[in-house]
Amino acid sequence: MKQKLLAILTGAALLAGCECGQEDQNVIIGSAPTPGTAEDFRLNIKDRVFFPLNKSNLTTEAHETLKSQAGWLKTYANTNIIVEGHCDERGTLEYNQALGAHRAASVKKNLSHLGVNSKRIQTISYGKSKPPVDGHNESAWAQNRTAVTVVE
User: Fold this and answer.
1) 18-38 pLDDT, tens per residue?
2) Residue 107: which pLDDT band, with cuts at 50, 70 and 90?
3) Please, are residues 63 and 124 in contact by the beta-carbon 8 Å criterion?
4) pLDDT tens digits along 127-149
5) Contacts for 59-67 with beta carbons within 8 Å, 24 or more apart?
6) pLDDT above 60: residue 66
7) For the chain, where are the E strands, in sequence order?
8) What backbone phi and psi angles, to 5 degrees, belong to 89?
9) 79, exposed or middle or buried, with CB in 10 Å at 0-12, 13-18, 19+?
10) What single DSSP character describes residue 116?
11) Which of 143, 151, 150, 149 is nearest to 87 (CA)?
12) Do 114 and 66 contact (CB within 8 A), yes or no?
């Protein structure tokens, strides 16, 4: 037992006395966003929820995302948000404008139920006029059926 302890201590002493080369001492530290900022929200909290085709009801996954958003918004109670409702490119302009509005309203209602003051939440519908993702296929369409929470 004493020999094992002596071997461990000897190894530790050798490592402690080791000189590292210059290349080993360069550590790059990324700058983290300032807490409570729009960048903090976008990078550390999911800023969007997704919807099934032609729907504005929230999925289980969307509810979980909104719980995280509500927690952040309660921590930073002086921040206001805009919830943007988006749709994919299919359907008429009028239909998608209304669907985007319903999606944004669903998010606002859920965040309010989770304790965020509704006066802090504005909504806007972009329908299909401002898709978050470019593309003309199911993958792009799925990403465009969304509501994006933007910190002002």
Assistant:
1) 454 445 555 556 689 999 999
2) very high
3) no
4) 999 999 999 999 999 999 999 99
5) 62/110, 63/110, 66/107, 66/110, 66/111, 66/114, 67/114
6) yes
7) 48-50, 81-86, 121-127, 146-151
8) -75, -10
9) middle
10) -
11) 143
12) yes
Quick one: 24 exposed, middle or buried, by C-beta within 10 A (0-12, 13-18, 19+)? exposed
Structure tokens at 2: 């004493």
- The answer to whether 71 touches 107, Cβ cutoff 8 Å, is no
Q: How far apart are CA 26 and CA 29, in angstroms?
A: 10
| pTM: predicted TM-score of the whole model, two decimal places | 0.79
Phi/psi at 72 (5° precision): -65, -45
How far apart (Å, rounded) are the C-alpha atoms in residues 92 and 68? 33
Residue type, 64: E
Q: What is the pLDDT of residue 31?
A: 82
